[in-house]
Amino acid sequence: MDLVLSDLKMPGLTGLELLREAKAVAPDVDVILLTAFGTVEEAVRAMKDGATDFLTKPFQRAQLTKVVRQALERRDLIAQNRAPLQKRLDDLLRQGQHDPGPVPRFAGS
After folding, report:
1. pTM here?
2. Is beta strand 30-35 parallel, antiparallel or unpaired with respect to 53-56?
3. Rama region for 58: left / alpha / beta (φ>0; ψ in -120 to 50; rest)
4. In the chain, is it the N or the C terminus that has fewer CB atoms within a 10 Å radius of its CB?
5. At 13, phi and psi to the nearest 5?
6. What would the DSSP string read from start to end of 50-108?
7. DSSP single-letter state for residue 44
8. CA proximity to 30, closest of 1, 61, 64, 7
9. DSSP label at 21?
10. What span, in angstroms and rounded, lies between the C-alpha atoms of 20 and 22?
């Protein structure tokens, strides 16, 4: 799951509840909330709870497209940066299994 696009007001489940549940299942997922009835407090709560963005209706299609594109581009950049870091970590862990190296000594030991 890369992106969740949800209205804030829905029957049976609010967008904030969906945001929290989505983040519990997939912490890295980007969540964009939409609303025609949002308050500043709800927007602040959504952002604090991990929303990527919060758009109020009516909005221009270009605005939504831009927000979605930015979220997906950010996700791609994170993945691009994570891959070499993960490889480096794996290499270090693999080296540590074969050659633990010197045991660090602390003052007084």
Report:
1. 0.73
2. parallel
3. beta
4. C
5. -155, 130
6. T-SEEEESS--HHHHHHHHHHHHHHHHHHHHHHHHHHHHHHHHHHHHHH---PPP--TT
7. H
8. 1
9. H
10. 6
